Amino acid sequence: MCNDYNQYDEYKRNSTKSVITESIFTMKKIDRVLCCSLVNHENLFDLDYNNKYSSREAQEFFQLFNETTGLAPFIHSKDLVFTQMSCDEVLFVLISKTETISATEKISLIQFLNSIIKVCRDFIGPLNVDTILTNITLFAEIIDCMLIGGYVHLTDTSKVKGFLSQSYVESKSPVAQSMISPPTLFKLSGSGYHPSTQSTVVPVSQSTKQFSKEEIYVDLIETLDFSTSSTGTTTCTVCGALSINNVSGSQKSVDFQLSAAYSKLIGQESFSAISDSQRFPTQGMLRVEAPPGRSQLMTYTLSTSEPPFSIEVKTNSNGGELISTVRCLVPASIRCLNVSVFFHLEQKPRGVLSIKTLPGQVLSIKEEKQAIDGVFQRLWTDSRHSTF
Fold first, then answer.
1. Cα dist. 180→107, 289, 310, 341, 363 in Å?
2. What is the distance between the alpha carbons of residues 316 and 332, in angstroms, rounded to a whole number?
3. Does domain 5-179 have CATH number 3.30.450.60?
4. Residue ranges per structural domain of the chain
5. Separation of alpha carbons 310 and 249, rounded Å
6. Given pLDDT bands bounded at 50, 70 and 90, which one contains residue 109?
7. Bridge partners of residue 193, in order along the sequence
8. Tens digits of per-residue pLDDT, 179-214?
9. Cβ atoms < 10 Å from Cβ of 220
């Protein structure tokens, strides 16, 4: 994921693929996300990201919605453009400034809106007033993760696109399937995040060129459940242990850089975290402090001067039992590997730290003509639940 607007613009110009919706793009183009009922036109939630508009936009859209039938995907009103898409019994709406949206970028807005619907539906099931209002915090976190955290990456992989066009959202808006890119899919089960069991091949991300070096991003989903202290915060220690091997399989002693990047998601409370960003021969440690009911995106940055190499990342809790493993062979052209881990922290009634995870995940790089077109394939195994 690109770090600034200019970098993303350059990435778009140099990319041989169609424009990809990433969080840095949507942060520039989307000011507000609304959801309303198709049954009674009730406003279910209104997420304002730029804090520079009054409630006029929402009121203006709902007035248009109440007066119009068969709305097109895009509605223009004065200086605003509304991008809308319906699913089941609800309607999702993105609000943007007309001056910031070009004709070609409208397709990316539709892609992003479609991905919101697909991910929300995959987490919760059929969308209606009851399911949204009873899961309002989760909805907001999902959308924030996509809009701000950027842990959902879109791709035009034909196999997954075909699967989605047959099995997922049937939009009532007149939008061609060719305009829609599928998101990475995960299913919510109990208190933990699980991948969608209906798809065994999930595109994770793409490599990007940054600062004259190539980086590959790998996403994992884990859930930390914990009880809070009297101060309302809990400290969890997460250790990352790595085994770096050469292509023949024998272990090499290669130093790497372990660091962490954080995204503030919803609410007024921000995360505080301390990471040890120094060079370790085999392992590093990360301490995370966060309020309950919040989510966090962490990125481990691993670099070596001796590619090609295979790398195994093991995430442990308090130095204890193995939680998850990622393996991939990194080609010689790649000097830096970013592993993103998305944590969702929930408050539990008992004082236990439990982690629901997906061990044994295998990632392979599908090499194409350009590293920027690399695609990861994730082969899922069963999940397990460990309590400490």
1. 8, 38, 34, 26, 25
2. 29
3. yes
4. 5-179, 198-387
5. 8
6. confident
7. 188
8. 222 222 222 222 222 222 222 222 223 223 222 222
9. 25
